[in-house]
What we know:
CATH topology of the largest domain in chain B: Rossmann fold
Mean pLDDT of chain A: 86
Number of strands of chain A: 4
CATH superfamily of the largest domain in chain B: P-loop containing nucleotide triphosphate hydrolases
CATH class of the largest domain in chain B: Alpha Beta
Helix content of chain A: 55-70%
Largest sheet of chain A: 4 strands, mixed
Strand content of chain A: 5-15%
Low-confidence stretches of chain B: none
Low-confidence stretches of chain A: none
Radius of gyration of chain A: 28 Å
Number of helices of chain B: 10
Number of domains of chain B: 2
Strand order of the largest sheet of chain A: 2-1-3-4
Distance between the termini of chain B: 38 Å
Number of helices of chain A: 14
Largest sheet of chain B: 6 strands, mixed
Oligomer: heterodimer
Shape of chain A: elongated
Amino acid sequence: MRQFFVFARKEFYHIFRDKRTLLILFGMPVVQIILFGFAITNEIKNADIAVLDQSRDYYSTRLVQKLTAGGYFRIDRRLQSHRTIEDAFREGRIKMAVVIPPEFGQSFFHLKKAQVQLLADAGDPNTATTLINYASSIIGNYQQELNGQTQLPLTIDTTVTMQYNAALKSVFLFVPGVMTLILLLVSAMMTSITIAREKELGTMEILLVSPLPPPLIVLGKVVPYIVLSFINALMILALGVFLFGMPIRGSMVLLLMECVLFVLTSLSLGILISTVTDKQQTAMMASMMGLLMPTTLLSGFIFPIESMPLPLQWLSNLMPAKWFIIILKDIMLKGAGLEVIWLQTLVLCGMTLLFVAMSIRNFKTRLS
Amino acid sequence: MPAPIIVQDIHKKFGTVQALQNISFTVNEGELFGLIGPDGAGKSTLFRILTTLLLADKGQASVTGLDVVKDYKAIRRVVGYMPGRFSLYQDLTVAENLHFFATIFNTTVEANYELIEEIYVQIEPFKKRPAGKLSGGMKQKLALCCALVHKPAVLFLDEPTTGVDPVSRKEFWEMLQRLRKKGIAILVSTPYMDEAMLCDRVALIQNGELLNINPPQAIIRQFSKPLWAVRAKEMYRLIQDLRAFEDTDSCYAFGEHLHLTLKHGRERVDQLQAYLQPKQHEQFSMEPIEAGIEDCFMELMKSHR
């Protein structure tokens, strides 16, 4: 027991004396969650548009005001002729152009029909669609406003409620994903690197020629990282809640327990990586490439799993991150309890046991 | 009680490279046994087999009577091992390293302090310095302390003096002599031939084979040829000329002199002088000398090449 204590203390010395390790451990998660949280978003805010208002009457001016009032659009420039539209797009600043033909108000009231042309830069189809949708709905509202009391004879009134995320904040989608990704990366990468370092520097050679049983060597190296990764999880949670306004509707205790479970899964994955690598570089590359890429692509973090081809959907089941993202969303957004997420929890437990068992099988008690 | 180290017919191959073959020797209690050989001769591989880190392809070995394959766990409790590369924690201080290694061997620095005291007092002034910032000699002394702190029955030191200044090397060997007197069997390897004289017995290893196992004095006695120390002002031209001479058996540079043996011994010294006469070497001198251990090794290595 004393051996174990001294071993773990040695590991803490390593961590706290190496500024780079500290930075990766505590700096990287904060920077990443802020970057991801603010940068990766599919909401449109302040999109630059150009306006060619050939009518310049009261009604067309009101329409342009309506467009810019919501904070979705910002007028970059006012154009004078059709010919300049193309040039404006070429410059690359504007995402959409609005063309209002002459005598807009007059046609609306007298001909009962007015036209507005929307041109969008479909180089980025998703953004283009979103912008057109926003603009159409604003124009639609304006039309109703102008119609005033005149009721249409028959209408179907759709009432939409966006459950669990009424404001449709994409942050609610990304924060659990980013939390998962960072916890996985930091925990798995740091453990695999720290064990590979003992091998690379030759200290593993001395540790092996000592009465320490190999499981104790691994445990002594990993326990400090369990503590630190858990602190990390708390930090990320706090950032999610206070910076991005994530709610925690479920049980806090359950949430923390699940975080511990996922930290254990990631650490055991790190141990597994370290049993097959001898160099810190290799360990880092293996963790980055082997975990980062599949996790971002297949965990449902960015691309919805439901829209993937079937083989990829099966593959996504192998990602520990997928299960943890579901757990996080269920607890934080839906306030779910263990009776809802028992399956995901069980999957993570199973994965952890599997990784640990494989690591024990792979661990070399000799050098080769 | 069996000898501390018994090696029988060990073979080891890495891919197609025969790293070790036909290795057999015994190290007795309280013996300082030297393994002398150039880099790549297979010294470290042998150490790793004996410290249970590698498995031999063929042959048996035992340490304190324990088999290196079957009883590896027990061996790991009783040996001290200092790998060829400095393998302590560079970011831990001297005292932290020592304390750490004492603890993982289930003992304390205080319990065996008398064993390491002589060495430790030399590095004690630096005990708060990170191990990575010590000089080469200090590092090796610390590594020896760490390997000794659990009072091992057998000590394996793989090239402990490589990269260490001459004064520290001498001190290091004096420590080994004292440890030997305390009954610890020591297997030490070195690429420096002059260190062979300080061992009780030495084994010369080359290309994975042992060439000769004997006390160093016996190895010198085996050297039967007359030997000359030759020098002149232009050493490089001299060595070229001597090697071109038909009766030259060997000619190597040793410090300021060339050590020369002839195929026919003293018989043809006159011919050599006649051969060198027209070459007009300035400050030429040639004197018969006693062979040193290095001459013997050069001779042995040459005959096995």
